[in-house]
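Journal club side-thread
Mid-discussion, someone asked how the predicted structure for our own chain would compare to the paper's figures. Pasting it here so we can look after the session.
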Amino acid sequence: MTRDIAKVPGPFSGLSVKIIAAIALVILLVEIAVFLPSLANYRVGWLEDRLRVGSVAVRVFDTAPDVMDLPAEITDPLLQAAGAIAIVYRREGQTDLIGLEAVTMPEQPHLADLRDTNPMRLIIEALDTLVVGGQRTLRIVGVPPGAGDAVVEILMPESPLRADLLTYAGNIVLVSIVIAGVTAFVIYILAESLLIGPIKRLTNQMLAFRENPENGTLVIVPDTARRDEIGILERALADTQAELFAMLRQRRHLADLGMAVSKINHDLRNMLTSAQLLSDQVANLDDPQVQRLAPRLVTTLDKAIAFAQTVLDYGRQQSAPPSAEPVDLRALGFEAALSGGLTGHPRIVFENQVPDDSVILVDPDHLARVLTNLFKNAREALEASPEIATPYVRFTHERTGEDVRLVVADNGPGLPPRARENLFVAFEGSARAGGTGLGLAIVRELIEANGGRVELLETAEGTAFAIDLPSGAAAGG
């Protein structure tokens, strides 16, 4: 099966683009949050400037006996300086007005009351002017400095205000984009050198090492000067790659060695088989000394052939995943007892205490091999202990919570300390002389493949193994 090899993105793609976009977006959002109050303040300042010009007219009003009698040569420059159509001055219940003679007064001007300083209202009015303003007439109402209780109103077109707001907003937007771009680029350069660059280097090295993990030159060389998270990651990755490299080399050596041993074992088994045939012929001779030595020779050859066959069987095992199906546990126990040499044994009693309705969901071949191994080991241990009066092997079934527990127990001599230390280790966990120690290693491998575990129980006599299968294995019983 081919693997899809990912490629590391370029400098302006992948993680880099995401970081730049995120930084620029955050800066723009901050700029927007600052832009709205700034726009409102600019509008207020603009209106206050017009109101200050109107305050000059107020002083004229205060000095003139009758505002209506002021000549146009005096009032028109004041109005033009303020950009106003008319100026209204209200004080002590009196209202005075000057206006351009050639301009018609609007009926419903848009109110801009500078006496109301609510921030949200100012922001809303600034956006209103920016979006929909321009064709209206403003009525600016405020109290100019030094005017006391007097109120000044200025009527003027809104278009100059909107034009200045558009220019101001455009400048702010341009400056914001430049600031966001420059800031994002600077932060990207820093992130590229401190974070993204090392991550890309680690990614490239990991991909290369995955393609050829037995190439020692692809093991990463960590930056020992870095004490941050990247440095820790580099050193941890280097240690992991070095351990994996050594493990793969060892595995290759063991595989080659196992292949050689398998070939030797195969040839040795053939030679031992030939020797067994010759020993059978020798056993038929009438020589008393030959008759005395022949059984020992046959027994030794049988053990050697069994040892060679066991090693070959272990090497040929396939690691196919289990295929679970409902299994009659009691019937499977009897079949395994037959394969393990317990059924019909002249001395050993096999006690199958599993109820008739016990059904579990498990791979039947795997569980059969497990039980056969355990039954066979128990039989061999009891056969080697003729002093036991009533030897037995007991197979039981119980529930521990929601899990299923199978127990294989005997009243034999038990396991020696050395066998307990390496109980499930191949070639080291044999409990009898001449054994390979593969049986229990196979038992653990098969049970773990089915999601369970096997352990040796502490008992007052004999040996007892418990097999725990997950709750999904219970199908009834």
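Post-session note: The first helix runs from residue 15 to 63.
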